[in-house]
Amino acid sequence: MADTLSDDEVDDRAPDGWSRDGEAIVRTYGFDEYLDGVDFANDVAELADEEVHHPEITIRFDEVEVQLTSHEEGGVTEQDVEMAEQFNDQY
């Protein structure tokens, strides 16, 4: 079981564009075209499935919101931060 990060650790370690939202970190990615957002969400889903760590993904017309948390641990862990970094690399 992974340890959750403290609020200060989350603030210090969250990648660019990510912020704390309760017991999760969240980022909204903007897109010019709807299908570009869908493609991005699919890429995120494939990476998440490989890592067996599944975010909440919300697709809207011109944006995709990705929310990461470790439910079993009750908050943000190192795995969430690492996945956020990988998602940033996708976009």
TrEMBL record:
Chain intervals for the UniProt region annotation (Disordered): 1-20
Pfam families: Pterin_4a
Reaction(s) the record says it catalyses: (4aS,6R)-4a-hydroxy-L-erythro-5,6,7,8-tetrahydrobiopterin = (6R)-L-erythro-6,7-dihydrobiopterin + H2O
Single GO MF annotation: 4-alpha-hydroxytetrahydrobiopterin dehydratase activity
SUPFAM superfamilies, sorted: PCD-like (SSF55248)
Keywords: Lyase
Ranges of Acidic residues composition bias in the record: 1-11
Keyword Lyase among record annotations: yes
EC numbers, comma separated: 4.2.1.96
Any one Gene Ontology BP term: tetrahydrobiopterin biosynthetic process
InterPro entries in the record: PCD_sf, Pterin_deHydtase
Keyword field contains Coiled coil: no
NCBIfam families assigned to the protein according to its UniProt record, in alphabetical order: PRK00823.1-2
Family: Belongs to the pterin-4-alpha-carbinolamine dehydratase family.
Name of this protein: 4a-hydroxytetrahydrobiopterin dehydratase
Organism listed in the record: Halococcus hamelinensis 100A6
